[in-house]
Amino acid sequence: MKYNPNEIDAKWQKYWAENQTFAAKNNSEKPKHYVLDMFPYPSGAGLHVGHPLGYIASDVYSRFKRHQGFNVLHPMGYDSFGLPAEQYAIQTGQRPEDTTRVNIDGGVDKEGKQIAGYRKQLDKIGFSFDWAREVRTSNPDYYKHTQWIFIQLFNSWYCKKQGKAFEISELVKVFEEEGNAAVEAVCDDNVAIFTAVEWNSYSENQKEKILLQYRLTYLAETEVNWCPGLGTVLANDEIVNGVSERGGFPVIRKKMTQWSMRISAYAERLLQGLNDIDWSESIKESQRNWIGKSVGAMVTFNVIPTTNNQQPETISVFTTRPDTIFGVTFMTLAPEHDLVAKITTPEQKAAVEAYIEKTSKRSERERMADVKTISGVFTGAYAEHPFTKEAIPVWIGDYVLAGYGTGAVMAVPCGDERDYAFANFFKGKNGMQEIKNIFANVDISEAAYGSKDNVEIANSDFLNGLNYKEATKKAIEKLEEIGQGTGKTNYRLRDAVFSRQRYWGEPFPVYYVNGLPKMIDAQHLPIILPEVEKYLPTEDGLPPLGNAVVWAWDSKNNKVVNTDLVDNVSIFPLELNTMPGWAGSSWYWMRYMDAHNENEFAGKEALAYWESVDLYIGGSEHATGHLLYSRFWNKFLKDKGLAPTEEPFKKLINQGMILGTSAFVYRIEGTNSFVSKNKIRDQKVQPIHADVSMVNSSDELDVVKFKSWREDYADAEFILDDNGKYIVGREVEKMSKSKYNVVTPDDICNEYGADTLRLYEMFLGPLEQAKPWNTAGISGVFGFLKKLWRLYFDDNGLFVNNDEPTKDNLKSLHKTIKKVADDIENFSFNTSVSQFMICVNELSSQNCHSRAILEPLAILVSPYAPHIAEELWSQLGHTTSISDVAFPIFEEKHLVETNKEYPVSFNGKMRFTIELPLDLTKEQIEEIVMKDERTQRQLDGRTPNKVIIVPGKIINLVG
């Protein structure tokens, strides 16, 4: 009976779907285990073999946990909002909703492109997903709940004293009774103090404006990365080298009124929570750096007026080194700082404005990363030192960021390398003072002294002779005495901009009355994305929703109506921005717990049962963005009594990347001639990617296919090797369509079956490491599966007997049970595959066909190669799926050696072997060996002079 993977795959995939084999229950007597993959964005390009790596690993683990008796939730869905679909809509005129659906379900789009469809591709690999719980973030029945969570954030504030979020109505009560002087809240800077009497006298509009300064999601003017080419704001991770990652358009810094999320309120909890989760140290460190906790002081410098009628201004600076305050020789503001325009003198205005214009074209990330370029401009203004009262020049420089700290730096060149380089670069220029040295017995002639260790402060008045800790404490005390500073803990983490000037995203449940935002009542959700004629911004620069004909809120009838009806009496304009891509992905794991609940994002019972994700697998590119936002939303929902746990993901594993092996042809510059790699001599050649499908395993290019690949290659000439072949160059790179090195899982499944693909991806190397794809190795894994099949079948059918297993059979099996169980728990999947190969080789050589061995072997293989395992289980006479059968129990006794095969030597030369129990004494061993007829033949009547016996090792007869 022949192994036919295509028939077996189709049979069991159909069985699993019809029987809902992997449907998880929301209550069970079994212990629960929740295994989650970071859900994909469904692009039209579909899956390549690199994408399923993490999914296969999570599937192996999920199947193993089912065998161990767990009720496993292993869901899948799609993060289906996003910029790529919108850009494709702009290019082709197709609705993002339509293209997204085709990308998921498969079919032909309006461009005539055949799309495989993510769902079909995933099904083909045989994943044990609970498809009944599938979610798509772009479906109204999903984003209805995203809108609801947004409303909860809007209606909440964060109490520093109690360290959690509360209803905004509770804050209003405090304002009504006490005012805000004693309120310890995370809020905007420079909130005005008011009494209860004043609050109660304010108009509703005034009250709303004040509350916006406290809400966890709020409107504010912020510096953003504006991409004119895409007509939208971009997050830092969507920008590469100053241009948009998608499309390569220039990005500038621009001030815009945006929705923001007050994630900074949760900075300390986000930091402390890292101690309670099982994540890699590298990911935790990335988050710690992003949160960026630092302890120091907030210092206020008064700006010296340049004219009699100039308004008094102050510069607030956060510093971790208040001990160095007497070393300040200049100040630097971020070019975008609000004060720059106010304090710049007329003489410096042109230079300052030119510098600001130049800086606006660089992203924050680019400015942070560029430590070599030194640039800046003197504003012409001076600030007063808090203690010495001397005038300190104020500069602007792009190494200071408006979004970090206060956007201002008190520069101490003797103690900071970047300040030192800046001071030396502008040395002798107007507005740059000499570097002061405030460290005793330290030479700063060549470099700054940035260490806090072994510091003795000098030239610093009341701080002289003190060390770092003593001087820091004393400096803060003195600053507080004169009212120009206070001790403070600061965080690098900034509030997250939550608006996007895009179409294809969640609509905000917001309308505007007198320019102030109002939330649509939750009972009227979802507010569904309207149809628009064009997906580009409007001619007057409004977001794409400005093109919508039906996009206004009728507050009397509680419905969306025609935009022309806006009267600002009962019908009001709706928000034109949409939510960012991370909105729907910041809570999706909870929706899987109760995916069909129409009234709540998830019911309390379901949330209480599943609690949190036990294992989360995904790419390390989400180390900060997605994981920070998800943890933030989870903590907020915990504060609201909705999420059952503080942290959403107990254990996190980042799978490595599967790299492609690209193929290169070499065109001689200025010609259409291509020279084989081995024939390149002194010619100047241009390497060009060739599609790997045109190259065989010997690196030989199919020249005919290449010439017909593109019109401009049709008349190409080829300089071949002496054997008449064109050999390409090879290079390991990221797998992508642009490099023509993509291998699709569909092709592998069609040729070798899904189990071969699954085993091979696990066999490539450790899960967390990057590894190159090499199609040549697949045949070996396919050969292993055929060899496994032959343990059960011969040409006439099933060949399994009820013979008692031998000791060697049991030893091979139990070695494998232990190894596979340990490997899966430790996520060492590649070594499990090696052990399967060893086991099958051993059982084949032992001619083992015993049911007592082959039944548990099928279970062991099942998590990795579920299709063949199901077929073997069925052929062995079982009528139910193998997926829930108990995992074989390891018995150590089968690995304990009770006998030893001794080599028996005569005068040092081994003549035969004898198997003896290991617990025999020397005397017993000698007696048995001397009586053995083979010994008698060797001695031929002689008596040995000496018998050397080392129990468990050797037997040697001498003389």
From TrEMBL:
<dbReference type="GO" id="GO:0006429">
    <property type="term" value="P:leucyl-tRNA aminoacylation"/>
</dbReference>
<feature type="domain" description="Methionyl/Valyl/Leucyl/Isoleucyl-tRNA synthetase anticodon-binding">
    <location>
        <begin position="810"/>
        <end position="922"/>
    </location>
</feature>
<dbReference type="InterPro" id="IPR009008">
    <property type="entry name" value="Val/Leu/Ile-tRNA-synth_edit"/>
</dbReference>
<dbReference type="GO" id="GO:0004823">
    <property type="term" value="F:leucine-tRNA ligase activity"/>
</dbReference>
<dbReference type="Pfam" id="PF00133">
    <property type="entry name" value="tRNA-synt_1"/>
</dbReference>
<dbReference type="InterPro" id="IPR025709">
    <property type="entry name" value="Leu_tRNA-synth_edit"/>
</dbReference>
<keyword id="KW-0436">Ligase</keyword>
<feature type="domain" description="Leucyl-tRNA synthetase editing">
    <location>
        <begin position="288"/>
        <end position="480"/>
    </location>
</feature>
<dbReference type="GO" id="GO:0005524">
    <property type="term" value="F:ATP binding"/>
</dbReference>
<dbReference type="InterPro" id="IPR002300">
    <property type="entry name" value="aa-tRNA-synth_Ia"/>
</dbReference>
<keyword id="KW-0067">ATP-binding</keyword>
<dbReference type="Pfam" id="PF13603">
    <property type="entry name" value="tRNA-synt_1_2"/>
</dbReference>
<feature type="binding site">
    <location>
        <position position="737"/>
    </location>
    <ligand>
        <name>ATP</name>
    </ligand>
</feature>
<protein>
    <recommendedName>
        <fullName>Leucine--tRNA ligase</fullName>
        <ecNumber>6.1.1.4</ecNumber>
    </recommendedName>
</protein>
<dbReference type="GO" id="GO:0005829">
    <property type="term" value="C:cytosol"/>
</dbReference>
<dbReference type="Pfam" id="PF08264">
    <property type="entry name" value="Anticodon_1"/>
</dbReference>
<dbReference type="InterPro" id="IPR014729">
    <property type="entry name" value="Rossmann-like_a/b/a_fold"/>
</dbReference>
<keyword id="KW-0648">Protein biosynthesis</keyword>
<dbReference type="InterPro" id="IPR001412">
    <property type="entry name" value="aa-tRNA-synth_I_CS"/>
</dbReference>
<dbReference type="InterPro" id="IPR013155">
    <property type="entry name" value="M/V/L/I-tRNA-synth_anticd-bd"/>
</dbReference>
<keyword id="KW-0963">Cytoplasm</keyword>
<keyword id="KW-0030">Aminoacyl-tRNA synthetase</keyword>
<dbReference type="GO" id="GO:0002161">
    <property type="term" value="F:aminoacyl-tRNA deacylase activity"/>
</dbReference>
<feature type="short sequence motif" description="'KMSKS' region">
    <location>
        <begin position="734"/>
        <end position="738"/>
    </location>
</feature>
<feature type="domain" description="Aminoacyl-tRNA synthetase class Ia">
    <location>
        <begin position="11"/>
        <end position="156"/>
    </location>
</feature>
<feature type="domain" description="Aminoacyl-tRNA synthetase class Ia">
    <location>
        <begin position="729"/>
        <end position="760"/>
    </location>
</feature>
<dbReference type="InterPro" id="IPR002302">
    <property type="entry name" value="Leu-tRNA-ligase"/>
</dbReference>
<keyword id="KW-0547">Nucleotide-binding</keyword>
<comment type="similarity">
    <text>Belongs to the class-I aminoacyl-tRNA synthetase family.</text>
</comment>
<dbReference type="InterPro" id="IPR009080">
    <property type="entry name" value="tRNAsynth_Ia_anticodon-bd"/>
</dbReference>
